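May I ask you to comment on the folded chain given beneath this request?
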Amino acid sequence: MQGPAQYLADQDHGDTSQAAPRLLYLDGWRGLAIISVLIGHFLSVYLPPLFVLGGYGVTLFFVLSGRLMADILFVQRQPLPLFLQRRAARILPTLIVFVNVMAVYSVIWFTWRGFVVMRPWEYLAALTFTINYAQALGGGLESRYLAHLWSLCVEEHCYIILAMIAFFGSRNRAAAKWLLTALAFASLARAIPLWLNNPDGVHAIYWRTEVSAAPLMLSAALRLWIQEKSLDDPRVARVLGAASPWVLGCSLVLFFVSPNILRYTLGPVLLALAVNGVDTSPAGFKKCLAHPVLQSFGILSYSLYLWQQPIMRYGWRIPSIVLLLAAVGMGAISYLAIERPARRFLNRKALERRSQRTSPEGG
């Protein structure tokens, strides 16, 4: 019998062309990321040290994205128009609905109580993927309900950078791995003076793409390095795989006990190593990651991530555990009603257009 996660996975894509086999333990990794975010945001009310799990979860997302994008662009060599179309089909429909729902909510709230929920700059910055810099460089500007979209901006900026590297480098893996490595360490180096000058300014530092690109670029570079080295010496993959669960555990401890400068520099290095070793990690570790609960959270993760912020901020003396359940419910509704149907529709239409262009009747 299919579990809920397997059902969602099977129904996820409207266009399966050029898609690699789905690795359920990577859905589980994504599930671990969103659960970390939810715990950090909702349950830190009861246990304040849990707050660091919010940043930990975002870094888990970043390193997974880097690994996947390296595979898609430099291993599978997915055509760039298809790559960009699939990213847009995944991201834009739910984002547009979310931001406009929040805009309507803001108008209603302002009309009723005279309270400003969302300002015009937030709306424009969210839909142009600039809200991370608007907040980081805005001298104290921070969105109440859209602040979390900074991480989505970072990912989109990195997708464009990776696509440009693939385009101008003609998918040359050797050149790409060196350039991605240089970009990753440039991002880490950029973070250090910012932390030293403002050790408590997590948001003003980490919201910047030139800083937060580090985990994504580092993971992408490692994916290409490890794949090349593993072909020459399979022991490389085996050793990294054996270390993966331990490195993941060390990264979690690091986030709890270290200062920000280590948390956001050494942390991405450890997590990039862990996610790139998971394929050859012990079977028990992969089985844990592939648990149906983690898989389901992973598949719902994008919608969950969007809607959890306004629900968390809503307050009104509602217990945080109730708000958490509401966020999970809203994320599931968003996925089933908006994200999945829109993505499948757009991917199917794109596939039909490609088929028409390549058919004899289409020219």
